[in-house]
Design a protein that fits this description.
201 residues
Length: 201
């Protein structure tokens, strides 16, 4: 995973420079782009960090950028910078998944707080997704019958019900259940169910 970076997008040179300077002075890696198109062209597939973008820009607005990121499946949290008259647009951006919006003029602490919250959120989302991916990989190692037993456990059914549904003995279900717990590396039934539900997201 690459180092989390703040991607600053603004058509105003002075804004880009001041934000870049502020973040670098706080030891937060930052890269600036003059437009949404320039950012998308340079964006690696596995980018980490967050986006700080102005909402009113020529060529591609902040809203259009959000729509493109959503369409491309990019999960970076987005902080939208807005003028006072653009608050309705900022609310629209939140509906599209923006993490936050900052109304101009904002102070340095407000921006840093929003950036740190977005970076923490992305880190958390990344950890959650890696756990889900691991659970999916482990489920893929189960046999067809083991998956059926797992489905019964996730549905909250006792061994007897699972046995009846599958036409096998409760003792056989216990054996499959033990195999599923081992293969899934689950320490308890609740952990097993949590993993299975996460994998399905």
């Amino acid at each position: 995973m690459p180092e989390p970076t703040v991607h600053i997008i603004d058509d105003d040179d002075a804004v880009r420079d001041s934000l870049s300077f502020l973040l670098s002075s706080m030891k937060i890696p930052a890269v600036a782009y003059p437009s949404g198109a320039a950012f998308l062209a340079a964006l690696p597939k596995d980018a980490a960090g967050c986006v700080v973008t102005d909402i009113r820009m020529p060529e591609m607005t902040g809203l259009e950028l959000l729509q493109r990121l959503n369409a491309d499946g990019v999960k970076l949290p987005v902080i939208v910078i807005t003028g006072h008259a653009d608050v309705p647009l900022a609310v629209e951006a939140m509906k599209l998944g923006a993490a936050d919006f900052l109304e101009k003029p904002f102070d340095e602490d407000t921006l840093l707080g929003a950036v740190r919250a977005a970076l923490d959120r992305q880190k958390h989302d990344g950890e959650v997704e890696s756990h889900h991916a691991r659970a999916r990989a482990l489920i893929a190692t189960l046999s067809a019958r083991e998956k059926q037993v797992l489905d019964g456990l996730v549905a909250g059914h006792p061994n007897k019900t699972i046995a009846f549904d599958l036409g096998i003995s409760p003792r056989t279900v216990e054996i499959y259940r033990a195999n599923v717990m081992t293969k899934m590396q689950a320490g308890s039934l609740s952990e097993l169910v949590r993993m299975a539900l996460g994998a399905a997201e």
